[in-house]
Amino acid sequence: MIRFDTDYMAGAHPAVLEEIIKNNRVQTPGYGHDAFCEQARKLIREACGTPDAQVFFMVGGTQTNATVLDGLLPRIGGVIAVESGHINVHEAGAIEFCGHKVITLPSHQGKMCPKELRAYLQDFYADDTWPYMTVPSAVYISFPTENGTIYTLQELKDLHSIAREYGIPLYIDGARLGFGLAASRDVTLPLLAANCDAFYIGGTKMGALFGEAVVCVNPSLLPAFESLMKAHGSILAKGRLLGIQFARLFTDNLYMEIGKHGVDLAMKLRNVLESRGFHTFIDSPSNQQFFILPNCVIDRISPFVSFEYWGPRGENESKVRFVTSWETTAEDILALDAFIRADG
Amino acid sequence: MIRFDTDYMAGAHPAVLEEIIKNNRVQTPGYGHDAFCEQARKLIREACGTPDAQVFFMVGGTQTNATVLDGLLPRIGGVIAVESGHINVHEAGAIEFCGHKVITLPSHQGKMCPKELRAYLQDFYADDTWPYMTVPSAVYISFPTENGTIYTLQELKDLHSIAREYGIPLYIDGARLGFGLAASRDVTLPLLAANCDAFYIGGTKMGALFGEAVVCVNPSLLPAFESLMKAHGSILAKGRLLGIQFARLFTDNLYMEIGKHGVDLAMKLRNVLESRGFHTFIDSPSNQQFFILPNCVIDRISPFVSFEYWGPRGENESKVRFVTSWETTAEDILALDAFIRADG
Amino acid sequence: MIRFDTDYMAGAHPAVLEEIIKNNRVQTPGYGHDAFCEQARKLIREACGTPDAQVFFMVGGTQTNATVLDGLLPRIGGVIAVESGHINVHEAGAIEFCGHKVITLPSHQGKMCPKELRAYLQDFYADDTWPYMTVPSAVYISFPTENGTIYTLQELKDLHSIAREYGIPLYIDGARLGFGLAASRDVTLPLLAANCDAFYIGGTKMGALFGEAVVCVNPSLLPAFESLMKAHGSILAKGRLLGIQFARLFTDNLYMEIGKHGVDLAMKLRNVLESRGFHTFIDSPSNQQFFILPNCVIDRISPFVSFEYWGPRGENESKVRFVTSWETTAEDILALDAFIRADG
Amino acid sequence: MIRFDTDYMAGAHPAVLEEIIKNNRVQTPGYGHDAFCEQARKLIREACGTPDAQVFFMVGGTQTNATVLDGLLPRIGGVIAVESGHINVHEAGAIEFCGHKVITLPSHQGKMCPKELRAYLQDFYADDTWPYMTVPSAVYISFPTENGTIYTLQELKDLHSIAREYGIPLYIDGARLGFGLAASRDVTLPLLAANCDAFYIGGTKMGALFGEAVVCVNPSLLPAFESLMKAHGSILAKGRLLGIQFARLFTDNLYMEIGKHGVDLAMKLRNVLESRGFHTFIDSPSNQQFFILPNCVIDRISPFVSFEYWGPRGENESKVRFVTSWETTAEDILALDAFIRADG
Hints:
The structure is a homotetramer. Chain A is an alpha/beta fold. Helix content of chain A is 41%, strand content 19%. Chain A has 14 helices and 13 strands. Chain A has helices at 14-22, 35-48, 61-72, 86-89, 94-97, 114-126, 153-165, 177-183, 189-194, 225-231, 240-249, 254-275, 295-301, 330-341; strands at residues 2-3, 54-58, 78-82, 102-105, 136-142, 170-174, 198-202, 212-216, 279-282, 288-294, 305-306, 308-313, 317-323. Chain A has a 7-stranded mixed β-sheet with strand order 2-8-7-6-5-3-4, sandwiched between helices. Chain A has a 4-stranded antiparallel β-sheet with strand order 9-10-13-12. Chain A has a two-stranded parallel ribbon with strand order 1-11. In chain A, strand 12 and strand 13 (317-323) form a beta hairpin. The radius of gyration of chain A is 21 Å and the shape is globular. In chain A, 58% of the residues are buried.
C-alpha cells in the first residue's frame, strides 16, 4: 500500500529520531528549562531573523492554537478566521472552550481576502452597538491553508497592516509551514516573521515525532505565558524532547529540505495525474493536491493506494486529496502512475 | 418626541408596577423560594398547558440564553442558530464565554429553514471526523425572530421533529414572545410549548420592569439548574420581584393583551407608512416594522420621531426599524402620520 | 412574625420606590446609557471623592463579584480571600466557573490578617516553581465581613499597601457597605475608596429593590468592561432602574442613613439580648448580630420571631444570627425583648 | 553528578525506546485509531482485570487530570482533594480553568482521611443552602501521594464506598502508579481498579518518553470523551506513539518491574541515609524519600549529588527529597553513601 492520506502517518524523520536516541540518557531539568530547548530557541530565532522573539514549545496543533489564542486574546475577545480555518472546523470547539468566538469570513480556497477583512472591521465599528457584539481581537490565518494554498508576500503585508491598524495581532498557523515556504515564490521564514505578530512552526507534519514551536515576534504579547501553558496542560514534562527535535530540524537546513522534498514530490504527483487527464479542484502549490477522480478509477486503485476522500462530485466522480511528506519517494509516484495507467 | 426605537424604553406596565408597589412591604424568603414565584409558576404552567414543566425566573435575555444553553448543552457541545440569531450577534459572545460554539445556518428573514437544518445534521454525521468537530447539541430559534418574522406551526413541528430525531433539544428565545403569539395565525402558547423542549417567556420587552421566565417543558433537561444559575450570577436575591411581575402578567390575560396591543398598533403604523408610499424590506407581522425611507424624510421627521437606523440602502435611502410596545398609543401613530405627510 | 432573618426580605425603601414610580413613564436609552445612570455616577463619584473613578451598575452581588474579578484578574490568575469569604463559600463556584482559583487564607472572624497575606505572598514567590502554581493576582475582602466585623482604617491601609507592593488590586465586596461604614470609627466612604482599587456599593441589602454599584477607583483596571459585563449577562436592559435607585440612595444622605438606622437597631437588639444574659459568639459592630441561645428559648420564640440558624453549640445551645435593616423598627426590638422575657 | 531530583529527567527506558525505533516507519491512522493503541488497550484491560473499561491515552499528567475531571464533573461541580493534592497546588489552576472548584480537605502526609471525607459530605448536605455552594461531585486522590505515601486497600475501599454513597466518582491520579503498587502490601492493579471509578496509569515518570493511560472502569462515566479530549488539545496526532509505549510497558511485566526497581533502590537509599544517622520527615514507602539533612552536609555533597530542596527546618537543617527511577542504579546509591560518609 502506498499512502498519501496525510503527512503524519509514520514516526519521525530518521535524522530527528537519531537525536532522540543519542540523547536518551542525558539528564536534564523538565518543562523546557534545558540546554536542548535553549539551543533550539536560539536556532529558531536565527532562522527567523527575530533575535528578540519568544519561542515556546508545545506538543500538538490544536493545543498550540488554543493556548496561543487564549494568550493573545482578551478574556472574551473573538478571533477572525476564514470558514475553512482549522480552528473553525476541526478542533472540536477548542477555541470556544476557552471562551472565544471564532468570527468567520469567506474562504477563498482557504485564504482570507484582505479587502474583506478591512470591510468587516470597518462595518463592525460603524455599528454603535459594537461593545455588545464580540470584539474582533486577533486575526488567524494558516500558511499554507487547509486547502494547500499560500499567501503572497503582498497579501501577508496587507493583512498585517490592517490588523495593526486596528491594534490586533495577526497569528499564523504553520502546521505545514515548511511545505508552505517551499511552495512560495516570495515568502521566506524571516519575511513571514516580519509580517505577523506570532506564528507556529509545525513539527508534527514536518518530520518530528510531535511538536510545534511558537514564535512570538512581539515578546510583550504573551506575558506569563508559561503559567497559561501549564493551566492548558500544554507543557511537556520532558520538554527536552521538543528541544532535541527542533534543534535538529533547524540544523543543516533540515526543516526546509523536508519542505522542499514534499513539495517536489507533490508537483511530480500532480504532473502524473494531470498527464493522465485528471483535473484539480483546488490549485495548490504545496504538499496537498486536490483532484477529481472518476469513481471507477478510485475503486480500482484503492486496494493499492490510499488517499483522503473529500466528497462526491456529481454521480460518477469524487473529490480526493493526496498528501506527500518526508516519507514519500519518487518510486511512490511512479507506482501511483502505474496503478493509474493500468486503467487505459 | 414620539419613540419607536425599541420596546424597553420606559419602566413597567402600570398594572405590573402596581403589584410591585402593593407588595413592597411583604417579607419573603429570597432566591425565588416565595409564594409570589410559586403562584407565577402555577399560572405559567397553566397557560402553557404543561403541568410538569419546570419554570425558572431570570433577569435578562442574554443571561437567560447563556444560562439555559449552558444547562442544555454538554460541556463542549455547540448550538445551531441562524446567522442573525441574537446569541450569534448581540450577546458579546456570552455563549462562547461559557465554552459553546454557535454553529450558524443561513437566516431567511431571521428564520431557520428546516430543510437546511436537516441537511446540516446529515452532512455533519456523514463526515467520519465528526468527533473532532463541534457536535451540534441544541437548536436555537427566536419567536418572533430578530427580524419580526414568525414561524408557522408546521415549521415549528418540523424543526422540533428534526431535533428529536438527532436527540437534541429545541430551545426558543421568546424575548418578544407575546408579540409573536399575537401575530401568529396558528401558534398558541400551548402549541409552542408542545413543539419545543424549552423556551423563555420574555418580560423585559413585554411590560415588566425586567424578567424572563424559562419554561423547561421536559423537566429532566435541566438538572441541578439552580446551582448553575447561581454560578452564572443569574439568581435574583429578591426573586419575589420576578414572581410578582409574572403572576400579574399571567392574570386576566395581561401578557397576551400587551402582545395584541403592540401588534395592532404595529399594523396601523405599517398601514400609515405604506399608504404614504413607503415599502418594507422585511415582511414582519409582529411589533417590529422594517421600512425603507428616503433620507430626506428621515432628516425631516427625526427631530420629532425616534426609530432605529439599520444602515444605508443606496445613496438616497436608508433602512429603519419602528417598534411598538405597551406604551404606544393610537395617537402616536396619528402623530407619526402627520409628520410624514408634512412632506407632501 | 418579626423578621430578623436577613436584610433583603422586603422590596425597596419607600423613598427609592417612589423614584421608580415617579419616573416609570420616562423613556430612555437602554443598558445604562441614560441620564439617571449618569446622575447616579456623578453622585457616587462625589460621595467617594474619586472624580476619575469608573462606576458600573449590576443587578446582584454574585454577578458583581464574578464579573469584576473576571475583569481584574488575568486569564488564569487566582484571587486571595479568607475561607469564610462569600466568593469562597456561597456563590456556587461562580469565580471558578470563570476560570479563577480562590486561594484561601484563614478567617479571623471574617477578616484577613495583613501579616498572613504578606507571608503567603512571600512564600509563594520564594518557591521556584511558582509559575506552575496559581499566581495570586487580586485580593478580595468584604466590608463588613460575612461575620459582621469591620476592618480598621489601618488594616485597610496595610492590606492595600501589601497588594500594591505585589502589583495586584485590592477589591472590596461591599454588599452591606452602608452598615459597615455606619459601624466604623475611622473608615469613611472616601477613605475606603482611597485604600483599595475597586469596590462595590451594595444596594440590594441597603434598601434598593436590587442593584450594586461598582466603583473602579483606578479607571485603567477594567478596560472594555461593558463588553465583559454583556458576556457575563450582567447588563440590565432597563439600566435606568439602577440609575434611578442609586441616584436616590446618594441624595440627601439616604444611603448612610439607612446604614446608621440598621446599626443603631442592631446595637439595641444586642443590648436587649445581652441584658437578658445571652452572649455573642462573634463580636460584630454592624447590622448582623451573632448570639448563642438556649434551644429552649429558640423553640419558644420561633413562632413569633424569625432569625437564621447557624448550627449547634453543644447539646443545649445553638448559634443564631439576627439581622436588622431599613425595615427594622424600635418596636420590633421591644417586641423581641418581650418574647425573650416571657421566658423568665 | 548523580541525580535524584525527580523521575523524569532522562528519556525513555531502553526497552520502550527500542519499540519506538522499531516501528518508526510503520504507517498508521492518527489520533489513537491504530493497532498499537488497540493492543495497548487490550493489555491494560487484562492487567487491570477490567474487560469493559474504556482506556484513553494522553500526553501528560496535568492535561490528563484536567481533561478527565472535566469529563467526570457536571458543568460547575467541584472536586474534593487534599490540600497537598497535585491538582490543588502544582497545576497552575488547570482545574479551575475548566470551571471547577477544588474543595480541600486536610492532608495527612498526602492522604485523605475517609472519616473527614464523610464528615465533609454530611455537613455539606446538612446546610440548607447547599445548592448555592459548590456541589462536591468527585473525589481525587493520588496513589502514591505527592508525599510518597500510599493508601491501604481498606482505605481505598472506605473512600470508594463513601463516594458511591454520595453518587460521585472516585478518581485516582497514578502519575507514579507503578512505584505505589510496588510499595504496597495489599493493593494490586486489579484491586485498585476494583476500588475506584477511574484512574490513570502514569507513563512519563515510569519509563515512557511521555504518556498517561486513563482507565475508566465504569465506561458510562465519560461519554463522548474523544471530543472533549480534542477540545482540551489532549489528543496526540501520532497517537500510535502512546500505544507503542504502553504496549511495551504492559508486556513482560515491564511496568511492574520498573516500579519494583525504583522502590528497591529507594529503600537502599533510605537505609544508607538512616544508617548515617539522618531521619525522614515523611515516612514514604515508595520511590520518593524525604529526609532532613544538616545544611553543611547539603553544601558538601551538592556538587556531586542533586536532589530537591523542600525548605528550611530550623536554622541548621533543611528538608530535601530524593527520587529514584528506572535509571537509578545500585552504584548510584553506593556513590551517594560515599559522598555522605566523606563527612565523617
